[in-house]
Amino acid sequence: SPSEKKVYRIAAIPGDGIGVDITEAAVKVLDKVAETNGTFSFTYTTFDWSSKAYLQRGYYMPDDWATQLRAHDAIYFGAVGWPDVPDHISLWQMILPIRQQMNQYVNVRPTRILRGTRAPVSQLQEKPGDLDWIIVRENSEGEYAGQGGTTHGHAENAVATELAIFTRVGIERIMRFAFETAKGRPRRKLTMVTKSNAQRHGMVLWDRVFYEVAKEYEGVVEHDKMLVDAMTVRMVNKPESMDTIVATNLHADILSDLAAALAGSIGIAPSSNLDPTRKNPSMFEPIHGSAPDIAGQGIANPVGAFWSAAEMVRWLGKGELDTVADQLMQAIENVTGEPKTRTRDMGGSAGTEEVTAAVCAEIGKVC
Ligand code: ATP
Ligand code: MG
């Protein structure tokens, strides 16, 4: 009966530009998935926390934002940022406070080449299956800890420091998450990225804790270590040699953009900000920004938003909705596989709404 349905409460933050279009599209797809499956449903609270709102009222989020978010099971985020507001304001007033207060210390970025994508590297054009990674990014400390200072401002003798903070607790929990992720994948392989030849303190601790945790996974997860510079080369030349990748806040930020580019389009890639303790809602978002250049034209690619929605379903289901998430991915790929239901960035001419309708129709068939 409908009363036995599990209801997931979603905090929706569409944000700016195409964030608004793709969030609307994702909600349609999520509702279609729930309706087709029949065992669960979603309710949404939409928050107008955007750069547009910031320009009008002077803040992104109200004082009680954290309490409001905690009344939900997950956060679905579109994109935030607008040319009139410098990027660091939305970052420091909204994105980072959410990640920190919601204890989202893991950022996960799955990357593979969806059907219909044009990969820029010839090996991947021929064998798209060679690229199938999960990048696990430390999301709470490291190079983006925000510690440091400036003296003499803009003077000729200006001095600035930027401290990277690494804690054993912070490293250990991200390594554990990465090993657990690798353990659940068919290839059971974890590559750890570091720069411990040049940075001799934080990165050395990072290495040491990695090898400690690795002992617990002896014979279960294969592991290796890469210096970040060599890693960029390996990602391009030997994509098939890797599976799960763990790196610091800064390194993983850069490597995941490279990964998204190798996979063909920025409009496709998803990202999850997770609180593995599940005491706070986790946040799901496509990696692309608000794309002011195409905003309001109805042409944004919603695939990254749909993939993020699939990851949200996976997370909410705690293992019980994996099949549903896989079916949604199948529906998405059936649509990207057809030239006539691809958006412009994928070489087609379909609009956001057409792609959304096509995915909803596929869900009815595959779920
Ligand atoms: P941010 O600084 O928020 O990470 P950005 O300004 O660096 O974002 P995006 O807003 O992601 O970058 O846009 C980069 C380019 O990619 C733009 O030309 C944009 O039109 C294009 N783009 C981004 N997302 C999409 C999408 N979903 N569909 C089609 N094109 C997209
Ligand atoms: Mg931008």
What this model shows, in words?
The protein has 367 residues and is of the alpha/beta class. The chain has helices at 18-37, 51-57, 65-70, 87-101, 122-126, 168-183, 202-215, 228-237, 249-262, 303-316, 322-336, 352-366; strands at 6-15, 40-46, 74-79, 106-112, 132-138, 142-151, 159-165, 189-194, 222-227, 244-247, 270-274, 282-286. Helix 6 crosses helix 7, helix 8 (228-237) runs parallel beside helix 9 and helix 11 packs across helix 12 (352-366). The radius of gyration is 21 Å and the shape is globular. It starts with 5 loop residues before the first strand and ends with a helix. The chain binds adenosine-5'-triphosphate and magnesium ion. It is an enzyme of class 1 (oxidoreductase).
Write the layout of secondary structure elements.
Blueprint: E1 6-15, H1 18-37, E2 40-46, H2 51-57, H3 65-70, E3 74-79, H4 87-101, E4 106-112, H5 122-126, E5 132-138, E6 142-151, E7 159-165, H6 168-183, E8 189-194, H7 202-215, E9 222-227, H8 228-237, E10 244-247, H9 249-262, E11 270-274, E12 282-286, H10 303-316, H11 322-336, H12 352-366
Parallel strand pairs: 1-2, 1-3, 3-12, 5-10, 8-9, 8-10
Antiparallel strand pairs: 4-5, 4-11, 6-7, 11-12
Helix pairs in contact: 1-10, 1-12, 6-7, 8-9, 10-11, 11-12
The chain binds adenosine-5'-triphosphate (ATP) and magnesium ion.
Adenosine-5'-triphosphate binds at residues 18, 81, 87, 266-267, 288-291, 293-294, 300-301, 304, 343, 345.
EC number: 1.1.1.83
InterPro entries: ICDH/IPMDH (IPR050501), IsoCit/isopropylmalate_DH_CS (IPR019818), IsoPropMal-DH-like_dom (IPR024084), TTC_DH (IPR011829)
GO molecular function: D-malate dehydrogenase (decarboxylating) (NAD+) activity; magnesium ion binding; NAD binding
